[in-house]
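Quick illustration, no need to memorize.
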Amino acid sequence: MMRSVSISLVLALALLRAAGGADPIKTEEDLKREAAIAEFTAKMTAANYPALFDAAAKEFNVPADILKGVAFAETRWEQLTWPPGETASPETGMPRPYGIMSLWDNKNFGHSLIEAAALIGKTTDELKQDPLQNIRGGAALLRRIYDANPKPDGTTEADIESWRYAIRKYCGLPEPDLNAQHALDVYVFMSKGYHQYGIEWDARPVNLEPIREETRRIMAEERAKREAQAAANSNSVQTPRPQLSANPQTMPEVPMARETNAPATPAASRSCNLWAILLAILAFLVVRIVLKRLRSRAGPS
Protein backbone atom coordinates (compact mmCIF):
# COMPACT_ATOMS: atom_id res chain seq x y z
CA MET A 1 0.00 0.00 0.00
CA MET A 2 2.86 2.39 0.89
CA ARG A 3 4.42 1.79 -2.51
CA SER A 4 1.10 2.63 -4.13
CA VAL A 5 0.85 5.84 -2.12
CA SER A 6 4.43 6.81 -3.06
CA ILE A 7 3.71 6.26 -6.75
CA SER A 8 0.57 8.35 -6.44
CA LEU A 9 2.50 11.18 -4.78
CA VAL A 10 5.15 11.12 -7.53
CA LEU A 11 2.41 11.34 -10.12
CA ALA A 12 0.78 14.17 -8.18
CA LEU A 13 4.03 16.17 -8.12
CA ALA A 14 4.56 15.58 -11.84
CA LEU A 15 1.02 16.80 -12.52
CA LEU A 16 1.63 19.82 -10.32
CA ARG A 17 4.77 20.75 -12.23
CA ALA A 18 2.97 20.35 -15.54
CA ALA A 19 0.12 22.54 -14.36
CA GLY A 20 2.60 25.16 -13.13
CA GLY A 21 4.14 25.45 -16.57
CA ALA A 22 0.85 25.79 -18.38
CA ASP A 23 -0.63 29.20 -19.09
CA PRO A 24 -3.96 29.81 -17.33
CA ILE A 25 -7.06 30.20 -19.43
CA LYS A 26 -7.68 33.89 -20.07
CA THR A 27 -11.14 35.27 -19.49
CA GLU A 28 -12.84 37.81 -21.71
CA GLU A 29 -12.04 40.44 -19.09
CA ASP A 30 -8.34 39.49 -19.21
CA LEU A 31 -8.28 39.82 -22.98
CA LYS A 32 -10.01 43.22 -22.87
CA ARG A 33 -7.56 44.48 -20.28
CA GLU A 34 -4.57 43.29 -22.30
CA ALA A 35 -5.97 44.99 -25.39
CA ALA A 36 -6.53 48.24 -23.47
CA ILE A 37 -2.99 48.17 -22.07
CA ALA A 38 -1.52 47.45 -25.51
CA GLU A 39 -3.51 50.32 -27.03
CA PHE A 40 -2.48 52.73 -24.27
CA THR A 41 1.18 51.69 -24.52
CA ALA A 42 1.18 52.27 -28.27
CA LYS A 43 -0.44 55.68 -27.81
CA MET A 44 2.11 56.76 -25.20
CA THR A 45 5.03 55.55 -27.30
CA ALA A 46 3.76 57.41 -30.37
CA ALA A 47 3.19 60.63 -28.38
CA ASN A 48 6.90 60.74 -27.40
CA TYR A 49 6.17 62.94 -24.39
CA PRO A 50 9.76 62.93 -23.05
CA ALA A 51 10.85 64.97 -26.10
CA LEU A 52 8.04 67.49 -25.48
CA PHE A 53 8.98 67.84 -21.81
CA ASP A 54 12.63 68.34 -22.72
CA ALA A 55 11.78 71.02 -25.30
CA ALA A 56 9.57 72.99 -22.90
CA ALA A 57 12.11 72.61 -20.10
CA LYS A 58 14.81 74.15 -22.26
CA GLU A 59 12.56 76.97 -23.49
CA PHE A 60 11.42 78.10 -20.03
CA ASN A 61 14.45 77.06 -17.97
CA VAL A 62 12.53 74.57 -15.83
CA PRO A 63 14.10 71.18 -14.99
CA ALA A 64 12.61 68.54 -17.26
CA ASP A 65 12.14 66.22 -14.29
CA ILE A 66 9.95 68.83 -12.60
CA LEU A 67 7.66 68.88 -15.64
CA LYS A 68 7.67 65.10 -15.90
CA GLY A 69 7.04 64.68 -12.17
CA VAL A 70 4.17 67.19 -12.02
CA ALA A 71 2.53 65.64 -15.07
CA PHE A 72 2.99 62.12 -13.72
CA ALA A 73 1.51 62.95 -10.33
CA GLU A 74 -1.42 64.79 -11.89
CA THR A 75 -2.37 62.76 -14.99
CA ARG A 76 0.09 59.88 -15.46
CA TRP A 77 1.21 61.69 -18.61
CA GLU A 78 -2.21 61.67 -20.23
CA GLN A 79 -3.58 64.59 -22.25
CA LEU A 80 -6.94 64.91 -20.50
CA THR A 81 -9.71 66.07 -22.81
CA TRP A 82 -13.46 66.29 -22.22
CA PRO A 83 -16.65 66.72 -24.28
CA PRO A 84 -17.36 70.34 -25.27
CA GLY A 85 -18.89 72.28 -22.41
CA GLU A 86 -18.13 69.64 -19.76
CA THR A 87 -16.38 71.50 -16.97
CA ALA A 88 -17.11 69.04 -14.15
CA SER A 89 -17.64 65.33 -13.69
CA PRO A 90 -21.34 64.43 -14.12
CA GLU A 91 -20.94 61.74 -11.46
CA THR A 92 -18.99 63.55 -8.72
CA GLY A 93 -19.17 67.24 -9.61
CA MET A 94 -15.36 67.39 -9.45
CA PRO A 95 -14.04 70.19 -11.71
CA ARG A 96 -12.26 68.96 -14.82
CA PRO A 97 -8.51 69.53 -15.23
CA TYR A 98 -7.17 70.08 -18.72
CA GLY A 99 -4.30 68.46 -20.53
CA ILE A 100 -1.24 66.54 -19.47
CA MET A 101 -0.22 69.29 -17.01
CA SER A 102 -3.65 69.32 -15.31
CA LEU A 103 -4.43 73.00 -15.77
CA TRP A 104 -7.52 74.34 -13.99
CA ASP A 105 -10.25 76.83 -14.80
CA ASN A 106 -12.71 76.91 -11.89
CA LYS A 107 -13.37 78.74 -8.63
CA ASN A 108 -12.15 75.87 -6.45
CA PHE A 109 -8.64 75.29 -7.75
CA GLY A 110 -7.97 78.48 -9.68
CA HIS A 111 -7.54 79.48 -13.30
CA SER A 112 -4.11 78.16 -14.21
CA LEU A 113 -5.37 77.32 -17.71
CA ILE A 114 -6.06 80.98 -18.47
CA GLU A 115 -2.81 82.13 -16.85
CA ALA A 116 -0.72 79.57 -18.73
CA ALA A 117 -2.33 80.40 -22.07
CA ALA A 118 -1.65 84.10 -21.58
CA LEU A 119 2.00 83.45 -20.70
CA ILE A 120 2.71 81.68 -23.99
CA GLY A 121 0.37 83.70 -26.21
CA LYS A 122 -1.99 80.84 -27.03
CA THR A 123 -5.72 80.31 -26.56
CA THR A 124 -7.12 78.11 -23.82
CA ASP A 125 -8.55 75.82 -26.50
CA GLU A 126 -5.07 75.27 -27.91
CA LEU A 127 -3.80 74.25 -24.47
CA LYS A 128 -6.77 71.94 -24.03
CA GLN A 129 -6.14 70.10 -27.29
CA ASP A 130 -2.39 70.27 -27.98
CA PRO A 131 -0.10 68.41 -25.54
CA LEU A 132 2.95 70.48 -26.48
CA GLN A 133 1.16 73.79 -25.84
CA ASN A 134 -0.22 72.40 -22.60
CA ILE A 135 3.28 71.45 -21.44
CA ARG A 136 4.67 74.82 -22.58
CA GLY A 137 1.94 76.63 -20.65
CA GLY A 138 2.56 74.56 -17.54
CA ALA A 139 6.31 75.17 -17.78
CA ALA A 140 5.84 78.93 -18.19
CA LEU A 141 3.51 79.06 -15.20
CA LEU A 142 5.85 77.01 -13.01
CA ARG A 143 8.72 79.31 -13.95
CA ARG A 144 6.71 82.40 -13.03
CA ILE A 145 5.60 80.92 -9.69
CA TYR A 146 9.16 79.82 -8.90
CA ASP A 147 10.59 83.28 -9.57
CA ALA A 148 7.87 85.06 -7.59
CA ASN A 149 8.16 83.05 -4.37
CA PRO A 150 10.82 82.24 -1.74
CA LYS A 151 12.81 79.04 -2.07
CA PRO A 152 13.03 76.39 0.67
CA ASP A 153 15.76 77.07 3.22
CA GLY A 154 19.12 75.63 2.31
CA THR A 155 18.36 75.28 -1.41
CA THR A 156 19.45 77.11 -4.54
CA GLU A 157 18.17 76.92 -8.10
CA ALA A 158 20.77 74.25 -8.74
CA ASP A 159 18.83 71.96 -6.38
CA ILE A 160 15.88 70.08 -7.83
CA GLU A 161 14.28 70.20 -4.35
CA SER A 162 14.07 74.01 -4.54
CA TRP A 163 11.02 73.73 -6.80
CA ARG A 164 8.71 72.20 -4.21
CA TYR A 165 7.05 75.47 -3.14
CA ALA A 166 6.31 76.26 -6.78
CA ILE A 167 4.80 72.78 -7.22
CA ARG A 168 2.58 73.32 -4.18
CA LYS A 169 1.20 76.59 -5.55
CA TYR A 170 0.88 75.24 -9.08
CA CYS A 171 -1.35 72.28 -8.15
CA GLY A 172 -4.25 74.51 -7.05
CA LEU A 173 -5.00 72.73 -3.78
CA PRO A 174 -5.55 75.48 -1.18
CA GLU A 175 -4.98 73.25 1.87
CA PRO A 176 -1.31 73.40 2.97
CA ASP A 177 -1.21 69.76 4.08
CA LEU A 178 -2.68 68.49 0.83
CA ASN A 179 -0.45 70.54 -1.44
CA ALA A 180 2.61 69.63 0.66
CA GLN A 181 1.76 65.93 0.34
CA HIS A 182 1.23 66.42 -3.38
CA ALA A 183 4.68 67.98 -3.79
CA LEU A 184 6.23 65.12 -1.83
CA ASP A 185 4.49 62.65 -4.15
CA VAL A 186 6.06 64.38 -7.15
CA TYR A 187 9.54 63.97 -5.70
CA VAL A 188 8.97 60.36 -4.65
CA PHE A 189 7.88 59.51 -8.20
CA MET A 190 10.91 61.38 -9.51
CA SER A 191 13.26 59.36 -7.31
CA LYS A 192 11.83 56.11 -8.70
CA GLY A 193 11.28 56.93 -12.37
CA TYR A 194 8.97 54.79 -14.44
CA HIS A 195 9.34 52.40 -17.38
CA GLN A 196 6.07 50.74 -18.25
CA TYR A 197 3.02 51.17 -20.51
CA GLY A 198 5.04 53.31 -22.92
CA ILE A 199 6.09 55.78 -20.18
CA GLU A 200 9.87 56.20 -20.21
CA TRP A 201 11.20 58.27 -17.32
CA ASP A 202 14.59 57.69 -15.70
CA ALA A 203 14.92 58.07 -11.94
CA ARG A 204 17.11 60.80 -10.49
CA PRO A 205 18.54 61.27 -6.99
CA VAL A 206 16.36 63.38 -4.68
CA ASN A 207 17.02 64.41 -1.09
CA LEU A 208 13.64 63.27 0.19
CA GLU A 209 14.13 63.41 3.96
CA PRO A 210 13.88 67.23 4.36
CA ILE A 211 10.75 67.21 2.19
CA ARG A 212 9.23 64.38 4.22
CA GLU A 213 10.03 66.12 7.50
CA GLU A 214 8.56 69.38 6.26
CA THR A 215 5.44 67.58 5.07
CA ARG A 216 5.01 65.81 8.42
CA ARG A 217 5.28 69.14 10.23
CA ILE A 218 2.75 70.85 7.98
CA MET A 219 0.29 67.97 8.25
CA ALA A 220 0.58 67.97 12.05
CA GLU A 221 0.01 71.72 12.18
CA GLU A 222 -3.04 71.56 9.94
CA ARG A 223 -4.47 68.63 11.87
CA ALA A 224 -4.10 70.59 15.12
CA LYS A 225 -5.85 73.57 13.54
CA ARG A 226 -8.77 71.42 12.38
CA GLU A 227 -9.12 69.79 15.78
CA ALA A 228 -9.13 73.16 17.50
CA GLN A 229 -11.68 74.49 15.05
CA ALA A 230 -13.85 71.40 15.52
CA ALA A 231 -13.72 71.80 19.28
CA ALA A 232 -14.75 75.45 18.98
CA ASN A 233 -17.56 74.68 16.57
CA SER A 234 -18.69 71.21 17.58
CA ASN A 235 -22.12 71.71 16.05
CA SER A 236 -20.87 72.96 12.68
CA VAL A 237 -21.21 70.86 9.52
CA GLN A 238 -17.82 70.01 8.02
CA THR A 239 -17.45 70.25 4.25
CA PRO A 240 -15.74 67.46 2.28
CA ARG A 241 -12.06 67.98 1.53
CA PRO A 242 -10.82 67.73 -2.08
CA GLN A 243 -8.95 64.65 -3.28
CA LEU A 244 -5.20 64.73 -3.85
CA SER A 245 -5.35 63.41 -7.39
CA ALA A 246 -7.11 65.21 -10.21
CA ASN A 247 -6.64 62.34 -12.62
CA PRO A 248 -9.86 60.35 -13.27
CA GLN A 249 -7.66 57.35 -14.22
CA THR A 250 -8.89 56.92 -17.77
CA MET A 251 -5.70 55.02 -18.61
CA PRO A 252 -4.91 51.45 -17.54
CA GLU A 253 -4.00 51.45 -13.87
CA VAL A 254 -0.33 52.31 -13.34
CA PRO A 255 1.12 50.53 -10.32
CA MET A 256 2.60 53.03 -7.88
CA ALA A 257 4.41 52.71 -4.57
CA ARG A 258 1.30 53.84 -2.68
CA GLU A 259 -1.24 52.04 -4.84
CA THR A 260 -2.31 48.41 -4.96
CA ASN A 261 -4.42 48.33 -8.10
CA ALA A 262 -1.71 47.10 -10.48
CA PRO A 263 -2.70 45.01 -13.51
CA ALA A 264 -3.54 41.46 -12.50
CA THR A 265 -0.80 38.95 -13.31
CA PRO A 266 -1.27 35.31 -14.34
CA ALA A 267 0.79 34.20 -11.31
CA ALA A 268 -2.03 34.75 -8.82
CA SER A 269 -4.62 32.72 -10.73
CA ARG A 270 -2.02 30.04 -11.55
CA SER A 271 -1.18 29.68 -7.86
CA CYS A 272 -4.86 29.16 -7.03
CA ASN A 273 -5.13 26.50 -9.76
CA LEU A 274 -2.08 24.64 -8.43
CA TRP A 275 -3.40 24.54 -4.89
CA ALA A 276 -6.78 23.32 -6.09
CA ILE A 277 -5.12 20.47 -8.03
CA LEU A 278 -2.89 19.55 -5.09
CA LEU A 279 -5.78 19.47 -2.62
CA ALA A 280 -7.86 17.33 -4.96
CA ILE A 281 -5.03 14.80 -5.32
CA LEU A 282 -4.43 14.65 -1.56
CA ALA A 283 -8.15 14.15 -0.92
CA PHE A 284 -8.16 11.27 -3.44
CA LEU A 285 -5.17 9.63 -1.72
CA VAL A 286 -6.75 9.90 1.74
CA VAL A 287 -10.00 8.34 0.52
CA ARG A 288 -8.05 5.54 -1.17
CA ILE A 289 -6.06 4.74 1.99
CA VAL A 290 -9.18 4.71 4.18
CA LEU A 291 -11.02 2.38 1.81
CA LYS A 292 -8.09 -0.06 1.72
CA ARG A 293 -7.90 -0.16 5.50
CA LEU A 294 -11.61 -0.79 5.81
CA ARG A 295 -11.41 -3.65 3.33
CA SER A 296 -8.41 -5.23 5.09
CA ARG A 297 -10.20 -5.11 8.46
CA ALA A 298 -13.40 -6.59 7.05
CA GLY A 299 -11.52 -9.59 5.68
CA PRO A 300 -13.04 -12.18 3.36
CA SER A 301 -16.82 -12.61 3.76
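The domain at 48-231+241-264 is CATH 1.10.530 (Lysozyme).
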